[in-house]
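USER:
I wish I could look at a protein chain and see how it folds. I am handing you a single protein, as its sequence and its fold in token form. As I understand it, each token names a local backbone shape. I hope you can help me see how the letters and the tokens relate. The protein I mean follows directly.
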Amino acid sequence: MVPMGHGLTLTEALCAQLGDAAPALSPVDWEIGRLVLAPEHRADVNALGHCLHLALTYSCARTRVDHYYAACTHVLSRLYRRFEFAAFARDVPLAGTGKAYTLIRGKPAQIAQALEGKLPTLRPQ
């Protein structure tokens, strides 16, 4: 995760293209970056929920977080909807590439509530 408002994130670069349609970003907003999973774990439908839970718990215990942001494919944005993220821009092109992104954001309290009951109880190994 990377703090917003410092020009460090992909989401900020893409939001710059939106002009006045972009939400106001601040240093208490955070971008959730890449989630890298080993191939044998990619089919686990609960993996994203577990990772979000860990990130939310860790970050909110250490700093103020108003919103989480992410730049992702349209398909992944639909998955993130399960966890109360909402798309605010679609098909935003990344200059110099053939890639386009959907920009999403969510509030920590709403994400935490969405995670409740969706994660199986974790058992010590």
